[in-house]
Task: inverse folding
């Protein structure tokens, strides 16, 4: 076998192997999904009947999960999730829920410039309502 | 002179750039990211282990060969020892598993890495000596090619590619996610006798494991002192999950060989008051190998909506039923 022929054979095998690897890597990447919920976080002021006094805390969305840095004084669950059609956090469309100290489910929706939370108990009775607004700095 | 000093290093990459290691890397990537999603069975659980135990000694050996002029035999056996230690540690040690998961999160930003452990996975270590034998065989060919300086450029390129791809594939090997798309929690109104009734929130993680908030509304708590295992899973094939379509279940306790009732398949009981005697029977059955308090509950769509039905040791007898209605 001549040198040039050996080189040609080697190059042909290499190209085939490269194609195989590229295909496998592409298949692997196809199994990954782009993030569906934009991550965001901002400070809000809470007013309404859930807290005995106005509260200030940070609300954040990470990989479609929602979290508040609020204390128990806020009267709100501190964990939740976006709905089936995720939208940016400021647009509402998420729920907050907890078992502790008792079951509470709050639904958030955007109304004008604020987020309105309606909170329900185990019997689906309205317990309190809260308004979240971004403070003016 | 230059060729003489570079030769062994060239050969180190060439032995990795041959067809079998490349095929094993392709198999590892395809299995971890495609086959496990599609088939998710015992075979896909073992394929990655076999591929890892073959690739890793060669990768370590090639890395050592690139870093320093180490004798082929020594670096291949070093690769074998490193593979045996790392693979065994990940299979048997919680500490090693936790460390690996943290490292993957740090390097790749992947937060949901799950290591599945099974002692039979250690059988894959049989591939380690095969990898050593293959490495020695390929190295002989590579050295011969170095001596005549033919056809070595492409094997080296393939070897470099294999080193990079194989290292990433080894780090990114994870348990399969059942569904990588966002599946929002579902809120149900529960009415029936399995629990106190009320509102529950059901959510499933990417691996199909369920979390139920306000569980008492759905299912009566276990008696004090009972320490029963609990498995909550979405069994459907939809992605995103469609929890409102049922196909999810909650199993409390363990029952290796449930007793089959002679009237199994009878019409389901109505949604009336709970039958306390049935509940008692299920919890104290001595005729089966079920744990006391064993219950298997399934959410299934029936003609009149979604129902959550629990059975005890006897799968033919429903212990309780609750109706689930989706709340917006």
Result:
């Amino acid at each position: 076998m001549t040198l040039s022929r050996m080189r040609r054979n080697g190059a042909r095998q290499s190209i085939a192997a490269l194609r195989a690897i590229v295909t496998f890597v592409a298949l692997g990447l196809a199994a990954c999904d782009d993030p569906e919920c934009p991550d965001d976080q901002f400070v809000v002021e809470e007013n309404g009947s859930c807290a005995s006094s106005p509260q200030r805390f940070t609300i954040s969305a990470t990989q479609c999960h929602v979290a508040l840095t609020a204390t128990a004084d806020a009267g709100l669950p501190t964990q939740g999730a976006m709905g089936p059609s995720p939208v940016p956090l400021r647009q509402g469309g998420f729920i907050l829920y907890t078992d502790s100290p008792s079951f509470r489910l709050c639904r958030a929706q955007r109304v004008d410039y604020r987020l309105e939370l309606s909170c329900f108990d185990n019997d689906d009775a309205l317990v309190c309502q809260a308004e979240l607004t971004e403070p003016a700095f | 002179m230059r060729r003489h000093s570079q030769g062994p290093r060239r050969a180190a990459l060439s032995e990795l750039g041959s067809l079998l290691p490349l095929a094993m890397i392709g198999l590892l990537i395809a299995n971890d990211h495609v086959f496990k999603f599609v088939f998710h069975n015992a075979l896909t659980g073992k394929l990655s282990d076999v591929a890892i135990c073959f690739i890793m000694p060669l990768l370590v050996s090639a890395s050592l060969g690139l870093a320093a002029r180490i004798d082929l035999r020594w670096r291949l056996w070093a690769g074998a020892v490193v593979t045996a230690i790392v693979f065994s540690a990940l299979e048997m040690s919680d500490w090693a598993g936790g460390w690996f998961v943290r490292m993957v999160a740090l390097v790749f930003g992947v937060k949901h890495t799950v290591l599945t452990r099974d002692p039979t996975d250690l059988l894959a270590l049989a591939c380690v000596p095969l990898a050593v034998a293959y490495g020695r065989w390929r190295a002989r060919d590579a050295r011969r090619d170095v001596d005549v300086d033919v056809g070595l450029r492409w094997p080296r390129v393939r070897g470099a590619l294999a080193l990079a791809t194989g290292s990433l594939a080894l780090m990114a090997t994870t348990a399969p996610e059942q569904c990588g798309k966002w599946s929002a929690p579902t809120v149900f109104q529960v009415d029936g006798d399995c629990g106190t009734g009320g509102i529950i929130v059901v959510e499933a993680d990417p691996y199909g494991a369920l979390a139920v908030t306000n569980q008492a509304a759905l299912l009566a708590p276990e008696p004090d002192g009972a320490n029963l295992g609990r498995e909550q899973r979405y069994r459907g094939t939809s992605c995103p999950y469609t929890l409102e379509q049922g196909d999810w279940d909650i199993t409390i306790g363990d029952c290796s060989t449930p007793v089959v009732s002679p009237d199994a398949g009878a019409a389901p009981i109505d949604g009336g008051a709970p039958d306390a005697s049935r509940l008692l029977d299920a919890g104290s059955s001595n005729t089966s190998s079920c744990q006391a308090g064993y219950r298997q509950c399934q959410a299934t769509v029936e003609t009149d909506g979604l129902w959550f039905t629990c059975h005890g040791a006897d799968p033919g007898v429903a212990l309780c039923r609750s109706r689930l209605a989706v709340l917006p």
